[in-house]
Design brief:
nine-stranded mixed sheet, single chain
Amino acid sequence: MPKNSVLHRKSPRHIEALQGYALRMHSVVRAFSPAKINLALSVGALDAGGMHEIASWMATCEFGDELEIKRLLPDRMSRFSIDWHSEARRRTEVDWPIRKDLAVRAHALLEQRLGKNLPIQLRLQKRIPVGGGLGGGSSNAAAMLRALDALFDLHLRAEYLEAISSELGSDVPFLVRGGSAIVEGTGELLEPAPLQNVHLVLVFPEVQCPTGAVYRAFDALYPAARLDRDRVRAIAVDFVRADTPFNDLAEAACRVAPTLGELRAKVAAIAELPVHVSGSGSTLFVVCDSALHAEALAGAIEMRLHLPAVATRTAPTMVEEIDGEPRASPLGHMSLLEEIEPDDDR
């Protein structure tokens, strides 16, 4: 085909149209991608379909990744960059194929569902450790969906994004809005729960706890496991103490990675408090009395055990920024947005 073909040269009218398109639309969206914590996790026995039904109280944290997407002209191909944030405490190689990254898959999913191209340039800076039981990849996928909705003025309902995102992973629907929720089924059933101000220390051991292996260990340990929805719901409406959280997968995770159990005991000796496992591991966490307590404990763990540890707290997912300004119409948070305070005698 001749090089002066319309496929190789854009007419002045085409260039003017593209420039006008760029001027009329938002240019950049920044979204926070929070870690999630399982404050309660009950797991049922393996069903006939090879799945485990869960009941969990999940909450998002102030600790998380940062995602930025920039709009590209309609004729451009999307570009993706994923790296560790300068503040990341536990880094591993970003060695997975880019098209398998959950944020990139979320972008492709929304393009496919809407039947149109959404050309962007992604910059994802990660703090959440890979494979830590904090839902990092799932949160990145959810942040991508929110950011695309904001950047392209799609005006999609949160319920729609939650529904389509279930095929990306069981934690993604909750993380679309974040906050606090009771999550049931295989992650698709969401019910808002009170959002408490829970101070935490997250500890990041250099331990691998593959989710599949942890669930297989759980099946071996508890072949007749029973789902306890009532226990999860009771915890979610009560004040969270250091010994409140529970996780049916904790023992299985320590069985798969015995080092995790050893480190859990060492952290407990320093904290003089119960130490919990988030999700299928390997992140450990401790519930603290205050921000000052959490900061002091994180420092002590790092100094004495040489383990990365961060102080944080539960919080709603931050609203996206569109061209430097807070999004005017956010999706909303999956929580009742209420504080639960301890009784005087607690």
